[in-house]
Amino acid sequence: MTYFVARKKDFEPNVSLPMESSILKVFASEVSEEVASDAVQIYGGMGYMREVSVSRFYRDVKLGTIGGGTSEIQRSIISASYGGYEPYRKIIQSELIEDKIKETPIGELMRSLGVLIQTVGENPERKKDKSLSLDLRIY
C-alpha cells in the first residue's frame, strides 16, 4: 500500500489520500510500538535502562501513536472515508472464495485487508487488549 500511495502522489501531486495515509500511519505506528515493546520484554529489566538503546526506541515509537493525530483519530478518518471501498471488499472476498490465492502470503494480506475494510467503522474506544491483537492481525 505504501508503494500505491507513493506512486499515486508521484503521478498526481495534488491528490489527497486521507484514508490511505491514515491506514499507513496506524499500521506503521502500532506495529513499531509492538516491536519495541517486544524488544523491551526480551531485555527484561535492562530494557528500561538507558545503557540499552531499546528503551529509547520504545519511548520514541510511542510518539507515533500520539503525535500527528492519535491512532483513534486516524481510525475516525478511515471510517469517514470508508464509503467508496465496499466494492473492493467484495472483490477481495470473491478472490479468496475462488481459492486462487487463499494459502499464499498475498491471500493472507487480502483476507486481513477485507477484515480491515469491514471493521473500519468500529468504535475506537473498544478495549485496548482486544483492539491491539485484532488490529495487528488485520494489518
Automatic annotation (TrEMBL):
Keywords: Flavoprotein
InterPro entries: Acyl-CoA_DH_CS, AcylCo_DH-like_C, AcylCo_DH/oxidase_C
Family annotation (SUPFAM superfamilies): Acyl-CoA dehydrogenase C-terminal domain-like
A molecular function GO annotation: acyl-CoA dehydrogenase activity
Record has 4Fe-4S as a keyword: no
Acyl-CoA dehydrogenase/oxidase C-terminal domain location: 1-81
Gene3D superfamilies attached to this UniProt entry: Butyryl-CoA Dehydrogenase, subunit A, domain 3
Protein name: Acyl-CoA dehydrogenase, C-terminal domain protein
Family annotation (Pfam families): Acyl-CoA_dh_1
Signal peptide residue numbers: none
This protein's record includes keyword Flavoprotein: yes
